[in-house]
Design a protein that fits this description.
Aspartate Aminotransferase, domain 1, single chain, 12 strands, seven-stranded mixed beta sheet, 2 domains, 390 residues, alpha/beta, globular, three-stranded antiparallel beta sheet, Aspartate Aminotransferase, domain 2
């Protein structure tokens, strides 16, 4: 069943000479959504005055559609370029107390961790990073947070689905504990929309949530949602001040000068397309099953021990440990990714976490078992050639 796409490949414009196995980084935009965005750009160029005059209202309708998909009200939902921009927006708007603490884990996305460190330094606060073992269960993850929260904790920044390690964190329970300790919670849900049916609901009342729509939702890149609840939503401002300044959140995000927001306006079409062509529940089920099969194929090919990456795995993202000595840091992981692309014809994600290298699998609707079998056949030889001498 997972060896055949549910619909014809002409829905996608990916290069057929390449096996695309890294959906989790940049996504893929369906043909119909590309056409919708092209038509919007042509409309913008035909009459820029009318376009920009009417743009705030159109952005408002697009974010309302995104809010419906995420199961949150439009008046809690703003559109931003990506999840990192959403995190930066929250960090810029919050008043961290001097001497206070921002709590992260060692699975945090690199750009988010750097942004938190910069925000804490500006405020005279500090960042504390918690170690979460790869094999930790949901209960064990919660216990780490429970033991770390204190009266000094002002903000908890936690991944819903981790990027480098493909973990699904129990953010609702973490949010409950943080709120009980008097801390606010920012959930980085970069990978969650589309992979999870109700990602904001699963965040359990977090103060802020951000998620990318260009990954599993297949919207044009440059489209993400920022959801905020409670009075502190009004502390959030676009990173660039523009004519939306006088409006309350989230309307102030709808009007930002001459930015090309055709990606935002086309995003609802991507949500409709996947529902029409596949059905969201069927799509999630297919992607999850395919990721599990792919992980088994690659683990067998590399003789990898999957007990080291058990625990709370994400539905459509899985890890396969690489041989020791490979991808021990970000630069070597990037170099190995390029080497694998050249040697196998496959685009993959190679990640590094705490000095260990991993193949990160992320399955989408255009992938098949045959794609992963192709990688499994060719990858061992490439890794043998890349392994450091003993």
């Amino acid at each position: 069943m997972t060896d055949q796409p549910l619909t014809d490949q002409p829905h996608w414009t990916l290069d057929p000479s390449v096996v695309h196995l890294n959906h989790g980084s940049f996504g893929a935009v369906p043909r119909t959504v590309q056409a919708a965005q092209r038509a919007l750009r042509e409309e913008m160029e035909a009459n820029p005055d009318t376009w920009f005059r009417e743009l705030p209202g159109r952005v408002g309708r697009a974010r309302a559609a995104v809010g419906r998909f995420l199961r949150v009200p439009a008046d809690r939902t703003a559109l931003v370029p990506n999840a990192s921009a959403g995190v930066s927006t929250v960090l810029a708007g919050l008043a961290l107390p001097r001497g206070g603490e921002v709590l992260l884990t060692d699975h945090a996305y690199g750009a988010v961790a750097m942004g938190a460190a910069r925000a804490a330094e500006r405020a005279g606060a500090r960042v504390r990073t918690l170690h979460i073992p790869l094999e930790a269960t949901a209960g064990e993850i919660v216990a780490v947070f429970d033991g770390a929260l204190s009266g000094a904790t002002a903000l908890v920044v936690v991944d819903q689905i981790t990027s480098a390690t493909a973990r699904l964190f129990p953010v609702a329970e973490i949010t409950r504990l943080a709120h009980a300790a008097g801390a606010r919670v920012l959930v980085d849900g970069a990978h969650a929309p589309g992979m999870l049916a109700d990602p904001v609901g699963l965040a359990g009342g977090a103060d802020f949530w951000v998620g990318n729509l260009h990954k599993w939702c297949c919207a044009p890149r440059g489209t993400a949602a920022l959801v905020a609840r409670g009075p502190e939503a009004q502390s959030l401002w676009p990173l660039t001040d523009s004519w939306g300044f006088p409006h309350p959140f989230p309307r102030r995000f709808d009007e930002q000068g001459t930015g090309d927001h055709t990606a935002w306006l086309a995003a609802p079409r991507s949500l409709e397309f996947i529902d029409e062509a596949y059905g969201w529940d069927a799509a999630r089920d297919r992607m999850t099953k395919l990721a599990e099969v792919a992980q088994g194929l690659l683990a067998d090919a590399l003789h990898a021990d999957l007990t080291a990456v058990g625990g709370s795995e994400a539905p459509a993202m899985r890890l396969v440990p690489l041989p020791a000595g490979l991808a021990t840091d970000h630069p070597t992981a990037q170099a190995l990714q390029r080497r694998i692309a050249a040697g196998t014809g496959c685009e993959t994600a190679i990640t590094s976490w705490n000095g260990r290298g991993f193949l990160r699998l992320s399955a989408h609707l255009y992938n098949t078992v045959t794609d992963y079998a192709h990688l499994a056949e060719r990858l061992p030889g490439v890794l043998t050639a890349a392994s450091p001498p003993r």
